[in-house]
Amino acid sequence: EAQVTQNPRYLITVTGKKLTVTCSQNMNHEYMSWYRQDPGLGLRQIYYSMNVEVTDKGDVPEGYKVSRKEKRNFPLILESPSPNQTSLYFCASTKRPPGPKTGANVLTFGAGSRLTVL
Amino acid sequence: SQQGEEDPQALSIQEGENATMNCSYKTSINNLQWYRQNSGRGLVHLILIRSNEREKHSGRLRVTLDTSKKSSSLLITASRAADTASYFCATLYGNNRLAFGKGNQVVVIP
């Protein structure tokens, strides 16, 4: 089944304890992205990746890192989590990167990872 | 800032009624997408309308696009309890990003 898989789905952690949220897709998609969702703020993009070894900042990258060493994986790293990073996180992917000529292609989303930082 | 903005933000209707929500955007687009999110779950793509299309249907969904007004609407006809969800519009933002509006919560009362 074509899907985007995120882990963990739920996590409670403490301030400063490094954590990684994994994201994997089995559709050979080039473009992958991380969003966070907070009440009243909608979805905000954290980082995105156009392809392997190509990553770029979204709207709210502070406090996060990403890497794209393989096409299928796009982990989100919180080096020193803080309470303001408590949120619902989504990974998403699409076959081709969106662009001015092609527009935006349909994203496939993971089920989400609910993170609480105490 | 978000490219798309839905209006109204929350809507409560009786089962069988129609639900309409709107989205505005700021820059010219190639296409506009609508997604649905059931409570706390991942977004699911509903429909994509291209900039040269004015209206598109998919089952009980009808999407319109007015590029002169930079706006789109999503109509759900004959709503069902299962349509209770948040609905987001999304457009290309910058060169390589897809930006979402804040979402429109729809509650369908059985």
Number of helices of chain A: 0
Silhouette of chain A: globular
Q: Count the beta strands of chain B.
A: 11
Radius of gyration of chain B: 13 Å
What would the principal axes of the Cα set say about the shape of chain B? Answer: globular
By DSSP (H or I, 4+ residues per run), the number of helices of chain B equals 0
Rg of chain A is 14 Å
| Secondary structure category of chain B | mainly beta
Report the β-strand fraction of chain B as a percent range. Answer: over 45%
Proportion of helical residues of chain A: under 10%
Structural class by sheet pairing and helices of chain A:
mainly beta
Q: Uncertain regions of chain B: pLDDT < 50 for 5+ in a row?
A: none
H-E string of chain A: EEEEEEEEEEE
Task: Profile the largest sheet of chain B.
Answer: 6 strands, mixed
What is the terminal-to-terminal distance of chain A? 36 Å
Question: What fraction of residues of chain A sit in β-strands?
Answer: over 45%
Strand count, sense and closure of the main sheet of chain A?
7 strands, mixed
Helix content of chain B: under 10%
**pLDDT averaged residue by residue of chain A:** 94
Largest interface: A-B, 33 and 28 residues
- End-to-end distance of chain B, in Å? 36 Å
